[in-house]
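user:
I keep going back and forth on a fold encoding question. Separate attempts, laid side by side, tell us more than any discussion would. Would you put together a sequence-and-structure record for a protein of your own picking? Write it directly below this note and I will take it from there.

assistant:
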Amino acid sequence: MKKLTTGLLVVVLSSSIAVANAQEKKNDTTTQTKEIEGVVVTALGIKREKKALGYASQEVKGEILSDAGQTNAVSALSGNVAGVQITAPSTMGGSTRITMRGISSITGENRPLIIVDGVPLDNSNVNDTDTQRGAGGRDYGDASFDINPDDIESVTVLKGGPAAALYGSRAGNGAILYTTKSARKGKTDIQLNTGVSFESVYIRPKLQNLYGGGSQFTLPTQNINGVTYNIQEYQTDGSWGPRYDPNLMYLPWYAFDPEFSKDYLKPVPWVAPTKDVDSFFDTGVTYTNNLSVAKSFGDTNVRLSYTNTNISGIVPTSKIKKDNFSVNLNSKLSEKLKADAVINYVHTEGFNRPEIGYGDNSVAQKFYQFGQRNLDFAKLKDYKLSDGSQRTWNRTSWSDATPKYSDNPYWTIYENTSDDSRHRFFGNAGLTYNFDKHFYIVGKVYGDTYTQNLSTRVAVGSQAVSNYTLEKRTVSEFNYEGRAHYNNNFGDFSLSAFAGFNIRDNKLSWLRGETVGGLVIPNLYNLNNGVENSLATNNRTHSSIKSLFASVSLGYKDLLYLEATGRNDWFSMLNDDQFYPSVTGSFVFSKVLDANWLSFGKIRAGWSSIALGTAPYSRLTYTVIGLPFNGSPQYSNPNTFNDPNINPELKITKEFGIEASLFKNRVSLDFTYYDTKSKDLIIALPVDPATGYLFRNINAGEMTNKGIEAMVTVTPVKNENFSWDLTWNFARNRNKLVNLYQDLQNYVLTNAPFRAQLVAQVGQAYGTILGTDYVYDSNGNRVVDENGFYKASEIKSLGSILPDYNMGFRNTIKYKSLSLSFLIDIQQGGKYFSTTNMWGMYSGMLEETALGGNREAGVVLAGVKEDGTPNDILLDAQTWGSTYYNTVDAQNVFDASYIKLRDVTIGYDLPKSFIGNAFQAIRVSAFARNLFAWNLANKGIDPENTSYGSGNIQGMEGGSLPSTRTFGVNVNFKF
């Protein structure tokens, strides 16, 4: 890894030297300098000059997101922004975990605020705790999936408190501002963008292909109708059976159904399947079509856009359909009054998103953790009898077809299905009135509201109890905002100031119904079809925040800038109001340093203090209404007691940075150092049950994050026909939980489905994995016990889920009308715990368990006995495999480093002579994503696929589908 990192740095530095003497046309240099000192979108959607900003921000052009065929506008940022860590598993439409500058809260929100055209966008994730910790469930993704990449003009990333302080309590982790495309005055623009991409399985666990199902090296026999047959252990969901032998005949699982006459009581050879696990997966296909029309009507500009996205996943039957419709308009109503509005409607509809983790309907768990390696998937497709009952390989016995542990995977995907849908409206409308060229006022309304419906089905005849569950969530947020702005110059001084108010209103309602005791009538999925009365629960919350804010920026000779902001929030959920100040400053030293090699240079510094708000109804403790017992209602205390004097968490940030453009803008760099301290962290402290509660919410603890962010852009070659740009970004964060409460050392975040825990541990980085480690002697040898098993240490830290650093390296080459761009995305460090490795070794499924085809010889573990002599105790193969579960957890903890070729895009603008006058332009592009991955500690598991939610629970791999690589083509027509 060090060699690669050094190599990248050498490329950047050598390129810098190479261009030191590069010649540049004068007018081109002036244009680039203006771009460096240009205008960017900042907090509250206010456009500011880059040179005046005293905090770290980064802009990403919309075409970077759309050119690579991205369907998720958040995961598309991966590798493109310094200081931003994104975990984006390839589960269809799945969750995207995004953090900036590390973790600041133990139990609270650590993701940045998502804003689209000024609208604070709800980015909820409905995955429950079991799903997130890898214990089974469907990943329904984040609400930010509704953002349409085809509509994005640019993205501005505000990386810390000083940049995002004006947004108040929920922007303490930074903010991501999406600005969508709009019509331009005097111009008509009609575009049709159509594309298709294909997705195939890539990284998945490597399975052994030498031994079949069972628990012993010989097949059992059974007399059936006077004939003795070899049969197999149908009820066993492991693969420690005999070695494959084409001369060994046996009755397979599908030989006991008379209606399948060609297979009934017909022995077959004991051999590896012709159609194995990989044949189960489809090639995923995504179709995207966008039509946009932008038109100027005098002083009114309108842009209409419609995008249809159809996704078919790698798991058969799984699919998502999404329709985005947007209207963006602005109008000059008079010389002083302007109006603007953006309205978006999104309809997202999913069917049978695959279950993941260790769950009944998780095909990944059945394929890679427990199963039989001799199963032929061509035979599994006949999963149902004519009477509707299931045919599964995991029979209770040869004469009892009842599923023992596992359903047939085709029964799972065709019978145990799910539906989800979301109807969403979001947008804004506002008026701007200019009193004169210096003073204007703005009034805005921002709205975001949606309804989400989820339903799941477990069919009668499944291994699990049949069930029907229905959920409905309705979410809304409205912000009412007014601002007054004043901008003016006074000789050498400039002033930019504004003040305003914001009223925020949030509502959430949730309703859930579930059948009890199973379903009475098969295939009738209705809450009235339960054996017992269905269980119904509901919840509703309402919260509001009223705010005043102001900002003052002073400039001197375009050389010195000083800015101060303040915001005061009054919460409905807290007793005390909170004030958030920030101060930033910048010094444009290129104005005073007369050097031909320096095009632009700026030093900046910032400080902020932001309090993170809490959940609604967090001050009081409310009685829990339980299920009726014998017709009588039940009431009880909740598990957690809420402190009426609870305070919000406080995050204090200090940062320093330098920006420079050198050698006539052929080299640019941006470096930031930051130091954050979070205190008054909110945790649920365990208390004596005699109090009537199990936990008490308190303010306790302190956490720090210190780190650096760097970005370097080099243009080694640029002329009229050819250009070559290299961009390198790097981020390193050091997180530490300084203390908790009194002598409390560990705060448990969650448990893995088995064995390991994820905790916040004092003195360590957040997200420590706790488990047993190897025991070593004084010479570093692993020690085995008297049975030949590795000795296990006490429970201890096995590492943190947080990486040492992240890095991205993008190359963009353009030659006339042809362009090539590719991104290498690198993560070094971090850990994850793998349930798949644990059970896959335990059950004899994984390639390593075949022992090179010599299981019969057994295993002697490398190490020494407790007396220091070399280990010579022989373990049979199955006993050795079982030790991955019940001895040393460190065997299942892996380094999360990776090097990925994240995306490659090739584009070509067809010549005018070819397309004629019917089109203004046609651009054809081909792209590939997640093309290759290197430096994986476990070659069969993608470290990014260890996330099943976008919350704080990460690094607990419970049973992941294969990661995928994608190839596609896109054509853009301009009329």
The CA atoms of residues 304 and 327 lie 5 Å apart. The radius of gyration is 30 Å. The chain has eleven helices and 51 strands.
